[in-house]
Design brief:
By secondary structure, the chain is of the alpha+beta class. The chain has two domains: 215 residues, Aminohydrolase, N-terminal nucleophile (Ntn) domain (Glutamine Phosphoribosylpyrophosphate, subunit 1, domain 1), CATH 3.60.20.10; 101 residues, Rossmann fold (3-Layer(aba) Sandwich). It has nine helices and 15 strands. Strands 2-3-1-9-8-10 form a six-stranded antiparallel beta sheet. A six-stranded antiparallel beta sheet has the order 4-5-6-7-11-12. Strands 13-14-15 form a three-stranded parallel beta sheet. α2 crosses α3 and α7 packs parallel to α8. The two termini are 24 Å apart. The mean pLDDT is 93.
Length: 327
């Protein structure tokens, strides 16, 4: 998890305040405790906080490519190795082993259509030097957050709303969202609890160019014709197993230790089973239990841990812990 933030002054004349970028980044330190940096050029500026996962030395951001493009990226490109090989065949060279450089090079090769080549989770911003524009995008299912505000002739964006508020975006509440939240338990993008702040929906991208902001959907769930659904159950089972196994495999690419949350239910148990099959060493698993036995799944998690010989850790969460976290 990293944190990104930035501003584009839409008149193209106002210079970015580096102190403001610093303040925005300071609100995101918890998302990226390993490193922090800012970059600005004229009316455009990015702030980045990094949690290092891949290429601990070469993955620092904001990242500049040979064309002068700048990237600030939160997330992970799971198929970065495969995309890098494709880009090498197209004549590109690489200086690092990071997915950050792969993403920036993919943009240089394919422009905004680079998203079609990516498998992962992301929220990122790219300043395109040649075209003097900023390209922003959020992953297909919205795993990584991206909030923005078009206020006072400036376009602001960040991983969290608090960074926008630190930049001076008004915190006027949108009371019309209370009824929505109380009835459904959440607020769907693009809405938030704030009048001036929006959330970029999953599967959307934005371009800020020439003082204009355009937003478009680049991906959606496919429509399925129930009359044309596959009936070859054995082949379907084989394909599902292949897709799930490959999904787990590419998510295990990391230069730092990783683990899995384990509840003992079908989903997490299946993932741990596949991780144990792929990994050459015991998988680290973690379970949070509760004193209320109706909600406590530690016994189920232990059974799965014993089955797949994981290195298991447990913690118990009590009401007082919740109250203390609010203090």
């Amino acid at each position: 998890m990293c944190g990104i933030a930035g501003v584009i002054h839409l008149d193209g004349q106002k210079q970015v305040d580096s102190g403001l970028l610093e303040r925005m980044g300071e609100t995101l330190v918890h998302r990226g405790p390993d490193a922090g940096a800012i970059w600005s050029s004229g009316s455009v500026g990015f702030s980045h906080r990094r949690l290092a996962i891949l290429d601990l030395v070469g993955g620092d951001q904001p990242k500049r490519d040979p064309a002068g493009n700048i990237l600030s990226f939160n997330g992970e490109i799971y198929n970065y190795i495969e995309v890098r090989e494709t880009l090498k065949e197209l004549g590109h060279d690489f200086e690092t082993q990071s997915d950050t450089e792969v993403l920036l090079t993919a943009y240089r090769q394919w422009g905004i259509d680079c998203l079609d080549h990516l498998n992962g989770m992301w929220a990122f911003s790219i300043w395109d030097k040649a075209n003097d524009r900023v390209f922003l995008a959020r992953d297909r299912l919205g795993e990584k957050p991206l909030y923005y505000a078009n206020f006072n002739n400036s376009f602001w964006f960040a991983s969290e709303i608090k960074a926008l508020l630190a930049a001076g975006v008004p915190d006027d509440p949108d009371y019309s969202m209370l009824e929505v939240y109380l009835s459904s338990g959440y607020i769907s993008a693009p809405h938030t609890f704030y009048k001036h702040i929006r959330s970029l929906p999953a599967g959307y991208r934005m371009v800020v160019e020439g003082g204009q902001v355009t937003e478009s959907k680049y991906w959606d769930l496919p429509e399925i014709d129930e009359e044309a659904m596959r009936t070859d159950q054995e082949k379907v089972d084989e394909e599902f197993e292949h897709l799930l196994t490959d999904s787990v495999r590419i998510r295990m690419r990391s230069d730092v230790p990783y683990g899995a949350f384990l509840s003992g239910g079908l989903d997490s148990s299946s993932i741990v089973a596949l991780m144990s099959e792929i990994s050459s060493h015991p998988v680290e698993t973690f379970t949070v239990g509760f004193t209320d036995k109706d909600f406590d799944e530690r016994q189920l998690a232990r059974a799965v841990s014993e089955k797949f010989k994981t290195k298991h850790s447990e913690a118990v969460l009590e009401l007082k812990d919740f109250e203390e976290s609010l203090a």
